[in-house]
Amino acid sequence: MEGPVCPLPLKHDDQIILGHGSGGRLTHDLIKNIFLPYLSSPPLLSGDDFARLTRPNGEVVVSTDCHIVSPLFFPGGDIGRLAVCGTVNDIAVSGAQPLYLTAGFILEEGLPVQTLVRILESMRIAAQEASIQIVAGDTKVVEKGKADGLFITTTGFGFLPEGRTINGSQAQPGDVILVSGSMGDHGIAVLAERGELGFSAEIQSDVAPLNGLIQDLLAAAPHTHVLRDPTRGGLATTLNEIAAQSQVGMLLYENTIPINPAVQAACEMLGFDPLYIANEGKIIAIVPPDEAEAALEAMHRHPYGKSAARIGEVTRNDAGRVLLKTRIGATRILDMLAGEILPRIC
Amino acid sequence: MEGPVCPLPLKHDDQIILGHGSGGRLTHDLIKNIFLPYLSSPPLLSGDDFARLTRPNGEVVVSTDCHIVSPLFFPGGDIGRLAVCGTVNDIAVSGAQPLYLTAGFILEEGLPVQTLVRILESMRIAAQEASIQIVAGDTKVVEKGKADGLFITTTGFGFLPEGRTINGSQAQPGDVILVSGSMGDHGIAVLAERGELGFSAEIQSDVAPLNGLIQDLLAAAPHTHVLRDPTRGGLATTLNEIAAQSQVGMLLYENTIPINPAVQAACEMLGFDPLYIANEGKIIAIVPPDEAEAALEAMHRHPYGKSAARIGEVTRNDAGRVLLKTRIGATRILDMLAGEILPRIC
């Protein structure tokens, strides 16, 4: 489970290790102790994956994401689809409608144009599906061996309907925790494509633009408190972030969390916990109890929410902690991911 | 002058070469023939470095830029200052006031935190100078040897005062062409720092946020037609882009173009033309003749415009071409940069 150890907090004479890109505790430490002292603003300090920008007539929502997945192509997607969907989803979980995307490409000398074209075509399709325009771009090339194929950084923005406040600090005791489908598919699909499973598995990444699903969900459950996509660090890390932001506890029921049997099997063989594995086409929704059933039904009607499930509730006790009631009836603390388990998965 | 040859147009079974990142003809070919068929929208098709986004109450301007400069530190700046200023300037040349920036970091495993901190501090100072907020970010880490220290992709946006239309297609015959200072400083400073000059030169990069200078310029010359920062590909390539967008000719007077003696000497030794070398703290302004003097005076009063000069005029003849009247009185065509001469300078 745990990656290489680096004593916290990170100090100026330490070195960056892979775990600093994990989305887990080391990433939080890097951001809190290294980035925020230098690059700080109210939106960055809020701890959400998006920035709400005040302007006279409404608010613009913006988010940025670097994509470095290896390999570039994997079952169910590729770096291009990932680059579009990752940022679309970060905007959509604010409750805003994503409208525009920028894309910056860092290409390695020697990259076959054919490869680039496959990726661009994939971006085009994903952008079309998400109904967004790619409005600005940049391309740089570095010498062979100075990058790994290509990296894509996307920045998205959208506009927020007035009066909508959905973010990680809105969870309230009594709220119901929903997920839109099975956990861990993306991370394990990428791992399988690298040949690191030691056996072949028919696991597809779930990478998808979720703004349509979220729109349907919000129509059914307009008082939704929190939406977030459990990417790096998985469900467990994402819920820990929200529990800390909202200063609430959470109680999950292990037997209700949807996990594909092939993902479960792969995780058991490798000693991974699927609750820490990245997803790229799933959302967590935290909704008031009286809207939970409507939210669940709305997700079930959408192609990307067929396996949506109610997995737990927000509690007053244990503020900042996520507890898991296991299949055998025990209760254990589900902590934030500590190090890195699967580098280069997004 | 010319980099490695790659037959145009780029085809699907070709490979990416360094010249595709040059900002010159090969980059244009890559964008036109490979990117635009897949990722296209009116703002991307306009050929400007920024996207104007229509919304009910005014327009948002956005631009994105990947930064891969090597080495990370050079006289006068570093990748952090470059990453802030490059994008601030791309927004400012639209006539918009840059307000917000996002930053995506791709870090190489093993990067000393000290190095990162120096760069972040430099970003902070540049952001403060430019009066912008960094509002969203992302960090990924790749294995040692899979990137070169770090890469930074920034996306900026600002808001455009109503009724302002400044872009590459607005140049008109009779307009005066101004530059805000000496050409080629940035590219040669980076080259010198790499030890590629073969001698030591006291050349500082000009990297700077130009929104303040542009604000002063526009107050003095409110009918300015075109503003652009001559980065990759230098003055010659940038003016060729504008000449093509506006379908006008241009005539430059070589003896009026400001060039630092040390840059001139370095270029002569290496066989470079300073008009093709990147700048990171200079603008080209194309203004109606009756506002040219006021524009020039406004630049002279600003710290970043002390060496501003009138270097030529827009002509009706030779549409799409830039001509240079040389010191000895001959006239030659100043073409767009063909290949790559200085990779990794921004």
From TrEMBL, chains A, B:
Pfam families the UniProt entry points to: AIRS (PF00586), AIRS_C (PF02769)
Domain spans labelled PurM-like C-terminal: 172-323
InterPro entries: HypE (IPR011854), PurM-like_C_dom (IPR010918), PurM-like_C_sf (IPR036676), PurM-like_N (IPR016188), PurM-like_N_sf (IPR036921)
A GO BP annotation: protein maturation
Domain PurM-like N-terminal: 47-159
Superkingdom to which the source organism belongs: Bacteria
Record-stated family: Belongs to the HypE family.
NCBIfam families, per database record: hypE
Name this polypeptide is given: Hydrogenase
Organism for this UniProt entry: Bellilinea caldifistulae
